[in-house]
UniProtKB/TrEMBL annotation:
PROSITE patterns: AA_TRANSFER_CLASS_1. CDD domains: AAT_like (cd00609). Belongs to the class-I pyridoxal-phosphate-dependent aminotransferase family. GO terms for biological process: aspartate metabolic process. The keyword Transferase applies. Its EC number is 2.6.1.-. It comes from the Bacteria. This is Aminotransferase. Residues 161-503 form the Aminotransferase class I/classII large domain. InterPro entries: Aminotransferase_I/II_large, Aspartate_4-decarboxylase, AspAT/PAT-like, NHTrfase_class1_PyrdxlP-BS, PyrdxlP-dep_Trfase, PyrdxlP-dep_Trfase_major, PyrdxlP-dep_Trfase_small.
Length: 529
């Protein structure tokens, strides 16, 4: 009996995913291959090993106080002599890679960054023990400097000074987005009916957040063009000149095309910002660390841009929930707060009055911190300190990798997977210097045309409108792909993550998709008599 797949066509991609998984896993003796989610199956092990070894040193430090009262009791860590005790601990663990990483990390922080070694060790030890509230709530003092150096090196190179940016540690990039939109609303920077421009295609929740009832924003799509290697045409970027557009939001490199914005687009947006200094920009650059020579929008218009970065994909740390929000210390959003009407300033003075005697001078990034805890709980805000320590170790691991071996390995793994998929599909992958390849969009029309010509491609496009193809793939092959349309793509396409399966499995996906195309082609030939 045939299945009416069209009834699922209005589901969002991640609701649709559950239906597809159910179909794909419904048959016994068949392995489901879920390429629909971007959670990587690789992870950085050495900085994790360093975290666990640091925990052993931290416990030893805590046991220096109060342990006489009970074998299971420790006390406040003493900073006096901590560097010497750490050196002895490293010697006791000589020969372990993680001990070498911790030793080199201390040397880098002290000798390269010029930060006090004893204060760094105290912050790390207390942090990994989790024995104090995060202080300052926005981010631990030395942790902010170290993570900030890593993020700015990867996102902007040398285009923005290291001491120019404030950082707020958050529970991943998604929490950062939620906090930013909430504080925009709370601080009278957006109102229902305002327009938000979104670079499309994009991670689908970022389309949905502005349209929630509490925000009520009108989405203006800024559509990347697949015929231009997924860059934004100038005509689309010109939409940002409209004063009705309050914010431009993008994921860069994009999700799902996985292409970084080229220099021409960056300079075009920077030129628009010069003419429109009131335009706010929010850029999620989580995939930037997979790109060669990446430049964030924060590099070209830092005073208008809120930079969001997550450690989730590059370090295989989605479960750690590690992200940061970066804002220039001299940013235009603080300038907009200063220009709010008197009535709005009065209301905000009242909102933040428990934090400072001059609430109107409170920076937007500090308002983000307070709003994340409903203001009244600002003193208990902030990312947990063990999370911040792991973030620091990830950052130092990357900063000290002068030869870029970790990055080169990840890029090689992903690109081999892409090659295996398209080789078995029988189609050449696109060659683009700006491509990151964390995801791939398998374009229905291009694939059909490459395999069997224009007439078949047209026939397949007609079949795509029924919503049938991805469900047939899941039902008949056990493979889960997500529809490109759910991410704002204008052409029928399937999104596959290249990060969460092994190479032979991507080859199997390619073979299965090719087999299904051939079955469709047989139907096409029969329909033509």
């Amino acid at each position: 009996m045939s299945i009416d797949y069209s009834k699922y066509r209005n589901l969002s991609p991640f609701e649709l995913k559950d239906q597809l998984i159910s179909l794909a896993s419904s048959k016994a003796n068949r392995v489901m291959l879920n390429a629909g989610r971007g959670n990587p199956n690789f992870l950085a092990t050495l900085p994790r090993a360093a975290f666990f070894l640091l925990g052993q040193f931290a416990l030893a430090e805590a046991r220096l106080s109060l342990s006489y009262l009970s074998p299971g009791l420790g006390g406040t860590v003493r900073v006096e002599g901590i560097e010497g005790r750490f050196d002895r601990f490293i010697m006791d663990n000589h020969g372990k890679e993680e001990a070498d990483l911790l030793s080199h990390a201390l040397s880098y922080v002290r000798d390269q960054m010029g930060l006090p070694a004893d204060n760094f060790l105290l912050e790390m030890v207390e942090g990994v023990l989790g024995c104090y509230y995060p202080t300052p709530p926005r981010m631990l003092t030395l942790s902010e400097k170290i993570v900030g150096q890593y993020v700015l090196r990867e996102m902007v190179g040398g285009e923005v000074p290291l001491d120019s940016t404030d950082f707020f540690a958050t529970e991943g990039g998604t929490a950062a987005m939620a906090y930013v939109f909430n504080s925009f609303k709370q601080n009278d920077l957006i109102h229902k009916g305002d327009e938000v421009a979104i670079g499309m295609p994009v991670f689908s929740p970022y389309i949905e957040i502005p349209q929630l009832e509490e925000y009520g924003l009108e989405v203006v799509p800024v559509q990347a063009d697949p015929t231009l290697d997924w860059q934004y045409p100038e005509s689309e970027l010109e939409k940002l000149r409209d004063p009705a557009v309050k914010i431009f939001f993008c994921v860069n490199p994009s999700n799902p095309p996985s292409v970084k914005m080229n220099d021409a687009s960056l300079e075009k947006i920077a030129a628009i910002v010069k003419d429109r200094p009131d335009l706010m920009i929010l850029t999620d650059d989580v995939y930037g660390t997979f790109a060669d020579g990446f430049r964030s929008l924060y590099a070209v218009c830092p005073r208008n841009t809120i930079l969001v970065y997550s450690f989730s994909k590059y370090f295989g740390a989605t479960g750690w929930r590690l992200g940061v929000i970066g804002m220039h210390k001299d940013n235009r959003i603080d300038g907009q707060l200063a220009q709010l009407p008197a009535s709005a300033k009065t209301a905000l003075e009242k909102r933040y009055s428990s934090l400072t005697t001059d609430a109107n001078s409170l920076k937007f990034i500090d308002r983000l911190v307070a709003d994340s805890r409903a203001v009244a709980l600002n003193h208990t805000a902030g990312l947990s300190t063990p999370q911040q320590v792991q973030m620091v170790l990830f950052s130092l691991y990357a900063l000290m990798d002068q030869e870029g071996r970790y990055k080169a390995t990840l890029k090689s793994v992903i690109r081999r997977r892409e090659a295996a998929l398209y080789r078995e599909l029988g189609v050449k992958p696109s060659e683009d210097a700006n491509a990151v390849d964390y995801y791939t969009l398998i374009d229905l029309e291009d694939t059909s045309r490459a395999l069997h010509g224009d007439e078949f491609a047209k026939w397949m496009l007609e079949r795509a409108s029924s919503g049938e193809i991805l469900f047939r793939i899941a039902d008949e092959t056990g493979i889960v792909l997500l529809p490109g349309a759910g991410f704002g793509a204008t052409r029928p396409a399937a999104r596959a993550s290249l990060a969460n399966l092994n190479e032979f499995q991507y080859a199997a996906i390619g073979r299965s998709l090719r087999k299904m195309v051939e079955e469709y082609h047989d139907q096409f030939v029969k329909s033509k008599g």
